[in-house]
Write a structure and sequence with these properties.
The complex is a heterodimer of chains A (314) and B (446). Chain A is an all-alpha fold and 314 residues long. Chain A has a domain of 189 residues: MetI-like fold, CATH 1.10.3720.10. In chain A, 76% of the residues lie in helices and 1% in strands. Chain A is flat and about 75 Å long. Chain A starts with a helix and ends with a helix. Chain B has 446 residues and is mainly alpha-helical. In chain B, helix 10 crosses helix 12. The longest helix of chain B has 42 residues. The interface between A and B is large, with 89 and 89 residues.
Chain lengths: 314, 446
């Protein structure tokens, strides 16, 4: 096809315009994350400038309504980490076992049937999990104190343990599906080599397959941590919302308060007076959450990339 | 022997795997079964005559004559109760002081309990709150309220710890004019309230009356639909364009790597931070609306689901066989035309899967809309108000009703109804996605 030079330029220009349009839209979508960082940081900065970081990170006195207000968030950070840690401890062993079961133990057809179960667990909205925690798990836990050894009296079913259990369940789908992908990526040859040497299935999985897919599993755990740390509704509804560090610190039967729940719960009071110290301290908390999730995300991506490289290059 | 241990260990390991899978499935059932069973109670339940009166009075539904006739009969059945109360009221001042002191608080409780159970006594002025104009509309709750009259709930501290005990009230009033009330409530409750199996499908679309004591969840459902559709309206074009760019146009390089990792990072931002961003950017900086609005909420949710839309669209585009594209190019179509007429139509079912799943996510999210779109007052939002008005939404109102409502226990059925409806919407969308995916898989196989 022979085109006149005018036609050709027109076409080239059109194509260039289309390409730039696509690029612009894509950049706008991708750069939204930079906008998020910028605006959260912009509204967090006045707090750090006014109060510094010392009180925020190291004091346990959280009295935002006092005069003068006190914004010590140490107990709230501790609450977030405690609940997240417990959730991950509860979710990782069953998560990895379930992933192993689905990738290596169950027949293909059965594990295809199980996939929707995991998808449903992931799809249930967090507020419904919170409602479930409040109406089913909390009363159940409160009643079960009497049957436990030592006749523990559980003052309230709304405590760190309830929140952790539910958060664990919410982190499960992520952990299972990401580690299952990692386990499958380890490949047939490794497994067959191990079986050929006379190892049982458990030995193959523990000694060969899991080490080979370790970084994938670690990134699954990191993603699970992110999910639990960033979750709002469940901890808001089921963790008790008391800004305190449990005594002793591992006592999960006491109420705690997390970063996400504080942001969600206090913004209702604070957003009426935009620009108040209370408003800015919540953005400071949001900024910290954002930083944690970046660190986890980067670490997770790095691990996935490392596994890919190792499996490819031996 | 060593072989045996190894075998046992292997079996134990396998059992651990099965256990984990079973645990997960059981937990899913533990969550879903109570929510669906009790949630069904909002739509199907045993309603009393008070329910039918309420429906007629507040919604103008039902057969007026039939309800009036039933109401007349019920009132006849209730007469002895009110007579006994009136008679006791006359008798009370004549009783000895000690006895009077003993009976008065209990009588107060009985009289109030009867007002809660059966509605205000005939001849009394109607209370201002709708919830107090009618008696118990649901038979299950009516039975509980009747038990509250028959028994006094106190705490017994005699043993170790405290225990709840229910002390019958009847012996206290033995020999007084009030005594006949108790057997009536115990044995004749049915004729006082006339329970009947009731279907209430319009729970889904009715507005609520008097802070969700009566009525349905219509405004909340509508708000959720607005938010989810609005979010998709914004996220889908953006997401598809970005996916096309990533898959068909972009050249490998630092810019592409950077954009990709931006999208990945966006996927990891906690949902409550999206809410903060929506408040700080859309409302306080861009001023898209004077305060919270459906628009601000939809924009925030759109950002939240954007990474999912981009990823699933990319996967769908990547799955289009190369031959399709090469065929189009060989026929002389430009890249533009190839994308629009060949690649996108072929990838459509896959893109649709991602859209449907993201829509479920947008419908269920709460934290991002708390500061940007949601209010707890259940008022209809008309389509012309979406740009400026906040809306109730299923997710936020479920939170609100089960934590901040003044009578959390009284409206459990509404909460369960809301939770079940929300889960049903989300799971139906997911099911649709699974079905679309299955069809795609079949088509690609052939």
């Amino acid at each position: 096809m022979i085109l006149s030079s005018g036609e050709q330029t027109r076409r080239k220009l059109l194509s260039l315009a289309g390409r730039s349009f696509l690029f612009a839209v894509t950049s706008a979508a991708a750069l939204a994350v930079l906008a998020i960082i910028f605006f959260i940081a912009r509204d967090a900065l006045p707090f750090f400038r006014a109060s510094g970081v010392g009180e925020f990170f190291f004091s346990k006195a959280w009295y935002p309504a006092h005069e003068p207000p006190q914004f010590g968030a140490a107990a709230i950070f501790a609450g977030s980490f405690l609940v997240t840690g417990a959730a991950v401890v509860l979710a990782v062993p069953p998560g990895i076992f379930a992933a192993l079961c689905m990738s290596d133990i169950l027949p293909f057809k059965v594990s295809q049937v199980l996939k929707p179960v995991i998808e449903m667990l992931a799809a249930i909205p967090s507020v419904v999990y919170g409602f479930f925690a409040l109406t089913v798990v909390a009363p159940f836990l409160q009643d079960s104190g009497r049957w436990l050894p030592g006749n523990i009296e559980i003052v309230s079913g709304v405590n760190a343990l309830t929140a952790s259990v539910i958060l664990g369940v919410m982190a499960l789908p992520t952990i299972v599906s990401v580690s299952e992908d990692a386990l499958q990526a380890a490949g047939r040859e490794l497994r067959e080599g191990s079986y050929a040497l006379g190892a049982t299935r458990a030995e193959t999985l523990v000694n060969v397959v899991i080490p080979a897919s370790m970084s994938g599993i670690c990134s699954a755990v990191l993603l699970g941590i992110m999910r639990a740390l960033g979750e709002t509704m469940v901890v808001w509804m089921a963790s008790g919302n008391a800004a305190q560090i449990p005594k002793p610190w591992y006592n999960l039967l006491q109420p705690v308060r997390t970063l996400t729940a504080t942001i969600a719960g206090d913004m209702g009071e604070a957003d009426q007076m935009t620009g108040s110290a209370h408003y800015h301290v919540l953005f400071a908390m949001g900024f910290c959450l954002l930083l944690f999730s970046f660190v986890c995300n980067l670490a997770g991506e790095w691990m996935v990339a490392r596994q890919r490289k190792r499996l490819r290059g031996g | 022997m060593r072989m045996l241990t190894r075998k046992i260990l292997d079996r134990a390991f396998t059992a651990g795997g099965y256990l984990a899978v079973a645990l997960m499935t059981l937990f899913l059932l533990w969550v879903l079964v109570p929510i669906f069973v009790k949630g069904a109670g909002a739509y199907v339940f045993v309603g009393t005559v008070e329910y039918r009166r309420m429906m007629l009075g507040e919604f103008g539904r039902g057969n007026e004559q039939r309800v009036a006739a039933e109401w007349a009969e019920v009132q006849r059945a209730r007469e002895p109760v009110y007579e006994a109360i009136a008679a006791f009221e006359r008798e009370l001042p004549a009783l000895p002081v000690a006895r009077r002191k003993e009976l008065k608080p209990a009588f107060q409780a009985v009289r109030e309990g009867v007002a809660v159970l059966l509605g205000p006594a005939p001849g009394k002025p109607l209370p201002a709150l709708t919830r107090m104009i009618y008696g118990q509309t649901r038979w299950r709750q009516a039975q509980d309220k009747a038990a509250n009259i028959l028994f006094e709930e106190t705490w017994d501290y005699s043993g170790n710890g405290s225990q709840k005990v229910h002390v019958p009230r009847q012996p206290l009033f033995e020999g007084t004019a009030l005594a006949p009330v108790f057997p009536l409530l115990r044995k004749e409750l049915r004729s006082l309230l006339r329970p009947r199996l009731t279907f209430y499908p319009r729970f889904l679309t009715d507005p609520s009356i008097d802070a969700h004591f009566f009525g349905g969840i219509g405004p909340e459902v509508l708000g959720t639909v607005y938010l989810a559709l609005g979010a998709m309206l914004i996220a889908v074009p953006l997401g598809i364009v970005a996916a096309v760019y990533f898959q068909e146009y972009a050249r490998e390089g630092p810019v592409l790597t950077f954009l990709r990792s931006c999208v990945n990072t966006l996927a990891g931002v906690p949902s409550v931070v999206f809410g903060l961003f929506g408040l700080a950017f859309f409302i306080n900086t861009l001023h898209v609306s004077p305060g919270k609005s459906v628009l601000a909420g939809a924009l925030t949710l759109a950002l939240l689901v954007l990474p999912t839309v981009i990823r699933s669209s990319e996967e769908a585009i990547a799955a289009v066989p190369r031959a399709y594209k090469e065929g189009a190019l060989a026929l002389g179509a430009g890249q533009w035309r190839t994308v629009l007429t060949v690649i996108l139509p072929a990838a459509l079912p896959g893109i649709l899967t991602g859209i449907v799943i993201s829509m479920g996510r947008a419908a269920g999210e709460t934290a991002p809309v708390v500061f940007t779109a949601a209010v707890s007052v259940g008022k209809w939002v008309t389509p012309s108000e979406v740009l400026s008005q906040p809306t109730p939404a299923l997710s936020w109102n479920l939170y609100n009703l089960c934590t901040e409502h003044e009578a959390v226990e009284e409206i459990r059925h509404v909460q369960y109804g809301m939770a079940a409806t929300l889960v049903l919407i989300v799971l139906a969308l997911n099911l649709a996605a699974i079905l679309i995916r299955a069809r795609v898989a079949k088509r690609l196989k052939v």
